[in-house]
Write a structure and sequence with these properties.
This protein has 707 residues and is an alpha+beta fold. Helices cover 28% and strands 25% of the residues. The chain has 18 helices and 22 strands.
Length: 707
């Protein structure tokens, strides 16, 4: 009936097969659009769909006006409109050329003229993305119009990026409607980033079945829809998260560029920058290969909280029902979305090559609310780095090396943090972090397995965190014999006059008497969406969902092993805490990363008292530095009390030159809140559970920065 209705114009002759194919594709496309709209709505988003000839300025303006009425100011544009009329130049008509060229180029001009270049419109554009084509770089038989149009998109993105950086003169690039570039430069360009993605062919969209077969015959693979979408989101997030200069033109294909190989020694990305001479100038273009997903989030979750055989196959089926296996943490402490590379050999517990995983860090993640911060808490960063090591241990078949029930524990590590991870203050945006892990050595004796790993966390091509760590597989009997850390030089008993209640020297004589309880406030759990932000409630400390300290027991400004300060806090173990359920399934234990977090939280409290900063204007974040941690015990639901202490090694106030990045130490160590200054604080510490010392932290450095 649908076909009959759509072929009513063919009264004298039936439609040709080609016409039927075109009609069918229109029907299928409309059906797919409806399904996608329903899926978006079901996910809780408000969505509107408009159909317009993007070359028609009046119609486009009217639609964008309705969009602003419905959703407010426009903050982003993705220009993906395009049509094909493939014919050799000798056979192509002027109208066919114009239809292809103008859909891309006039459509782009109209979008920019109705937003960026209209002085009467005050949109807040953060990004403009052009969907260009690899044809713009390499050409393609029969696509002269398509190649030219897409290269115009590329050069326009380059132009606006240089204009944004003040490197181009303003010459009224698009002034056919009387709009002056100068007004848009003052208004919006400085805040808007341009990105042009030169796509290879996709499995769908403009690629018909016949065209797909033609690509296959030519040895050109097609980009899978899911991987292509993920690559787009990755590029957009990278563009928005990086400072200038960033990659304006990116070429993405499946295995279109066979010569590109991962360079693990350089920057660990399946990408490289090449120089191409164009008719305008020499331009840097990045070519990326759309990486396949080897293990999806669903498969990784199956190993964390489901049937291990669904993650790794039949060899792990005995752990589905008959035996228990060491797991990865489950939500909300689960930070792996996919494995994209596994050069290690499965089922062989030997030193391996790298595996690569990714985590799409949501900018509205619960840990930002719980920490009252725009910076990723260290406990989350540490888990992001360590969890691929646990996955690699399972991938190599470690659990099959013993008939006993084995428990997997981190034993310590040494790592360098290059820069803190800062979120965007926007919902529904995430930053993709890439994690790399490599098993460097393995020892197996006495029922125990010890594995050493190299680990890395990157954002784009930039290192965030890098170091070495070791894990062990232990039997239940091994845990019964744990002696803790006995010979640490950090064991410390304050002098007798300090063992009584002490007044806080920083906040006056009538307040700050220790022990001092930390106020519990919202969010109470990771699932809690309500956040208390009143400083009278928060006191600058994390919310209960992330707070690992109940009480500050002691603060000595001249105490500790280094005579520069000492602070001690404690927490009662609650067997119903959320992290016991998440870490791990069938093996509840407090994550070691949260133990380190408790140490950092008492340092935060010390800094709050030392510098008296306002948490609404300043934040204490991890400074670039190298640190160590040692674990020699565990916190389980049956434990009673956790105690954590920090010995302040150094506090430094310094001035940072905004122009050259150099720092000058202020030898008077004045308060960094006064004036344009920064402060750093470095500490060592220990953590005890029921009197037994089980964790040691060394050389952790935090920095006071303006928000």
């Amino acid at each position: 009936a649908i076909l009959a209705n759509m072929t009513k114009s063919h009264v004298n002759s039936p439609p040709t097969p080609a016409e039927l194919q075109k009609i069918y594709r229109n029907i299928a496309s409309n059906s797919e659009i409806r399904e996608n709209l329903e899926r978006i709505s079901d996910a809780g988003s408000i969505v509107k769909y408009y159909s317009v000839d993007i070359r028609n300025m009046a119609e486009l303006s009217a639609i964008l006006a309705d969009v602003r009425d419905s959703f407010g100011k426009i903050s982003g544009i993705i220009h993906g409109a395009g049509i094909l009329e493939d014919k050799l130049i000798v056979d192509k008509t002027e109208s066919q050329f114009s239809a292809v060229f103008e859909t891309k180029v006039s459509g782009m001009e109209n979008l920019l003229n109705t937003t960026l270049h209209n002085p009467n419109i005050h949109d807040e554009l953060k990004f403009v993305v052009f969907f260009s084509s690899v044809a713009a770089r390499s050409g393609n038989a029969g696509q002269v119009d398509y190649a030219m149009a897409n290269e115009v998109l590329n050069k326009t993105a380059q132009y606006y990026t240089k204009l944004r950086n003040g490197k181009n003169s303003v010459d009224n690039l698009y002034d056919s409607n009387g709009y002056d570039d100068k007004s848009s430069t003052d208004n919006n360009i400085g805040k808007c980033k341009f990105l042009s993605i030169n796509w290879g062919p996709w499995e769908g969209g403009m690629v018909s079945p016949s065209l797909k077969n033609a690509f296959i015959k030519r040895g050109i693979d097609l980009i899978p829809l899911k991987q292509g979408a993920e690559s787009f989101v990755d590029e957009l997030c990278q563009c928005l998260s990086e400072t200038e200069p960033y990659e304006v033109e990116v070429v993405i294909g499946a295995s279109l560029f066979k010569e590109i190989k991962p360079d693990h020694d350089l920057n660990t990305s399946d990408s490289k920058t090449i120089d191409l001479k164009t008719d305008m100038k020499k331009t840097d273009i990045t070519i990326r290969q759309a990486l396949p997903v080897l293990f999806s989030r669903e498969k990784i979750l199956a190993f964390a909280v489901g049937n291990p055989s669904e993650a790794f196959g039949e060899k792990y089926s005995e752990f589905d029902t008959q035996r228990e296996i060491a797991r990865l943490p489950g939500p909300p402490y689960f930070f792996m979305d996919r494995v994209i590379k596994a050069d290690a050999k499965p089922w062989e517990m030997v030193p391996s090559d790298w595996i690569e995983a990714q985590f799409d860090m949501p900018c509205d993640g619960w840990y930002f609310r719980a920490g009252h911060t725009d910076y990723l808490p260290f406990c989350i960063l540490l888990e992001i780095a360590l969890q691929p090591c646990g996955w690699l241990a399972a991938y190599t078949g470690s659990a099959l090396k013993s008939k006993d029930r084995l428990f997997f524990r981190n034993l310590g590590g040494e790592a360098q943090i290059f820069k803190p991870v800062k979120r965007f203050k926007s919902e529904h945006i995430f930053i993709t972090l890439t994690m790399r892990s490599k098993m460097t050595s393995v020892s197996h004796a006495g029922g125990m397995i010890i594995q050493n790993f190299d680990m890395e966390v990157l954002s784009g091509n930039d290192y965030i965190y890098k170091g070495k760590t070791n894990f062990g597989f232990f039997t239940a009997q091994s845990f019964a014999n744990q002696a803790g850390i006995k010979k640490s030089t950090l064991h410390y008993t304050p002098e007798e006059e300090y063992t009584f209640t002490v007044s806080d020297p920083y906040v006056g004589s009538d307040t700050g008497i220790y022990p001092l309880d930390i106020k519990a406030h919202k969010p109470l759990t990771p699932e809690d969406v309500i956040e208390d932000t009143d400083l009278n409630i928060t006191d600058g400390m994390p919310a209960k969902a992330l707070c690992m300290v109940d009480t500050i027991d002691l603060l000595l400004p001249d105490g500790g092993k280094y005579g520069k300060g000492f602070i001690k806090g404690s927490k009662k173990v609650n067997p119903d805490e959320w992290f016991f359920k998440a870490h791990f399934y069938q093996d509840p234990v407090c994550p070691g990363s949260l133990g380190v977090e408790s140490f950092l939280q008492i340092i935060r409290f010390y800094a709050l008292k030392l510098w008296k900063y306002n948490p609404s204007t300043h934040d204490l974040v991890l400074s670039p530095h190298t640190h160590k941690w040692i674990y020699r015990g565990q916190i389980v639901p049956s434990c009673g009390k956790i105690e954590v202490c920090a010995h302040i090694k150094d506090t430094v106030t310094y001035t940072k030159d905004k122009h050259n990045g150099c720092t000058t130490k202020d030898y008077d160590n004045s308060n960094p809140v006064n004036g344009d200054k920064n402060g750093k604080i470095t500490a060592d510490g220990l953590l005890y559970v029921d009197g037994l010392c089980i964790y040691q932290m060394e050389d952790f450095t935090m920095e006071l920065v303006k928000k």
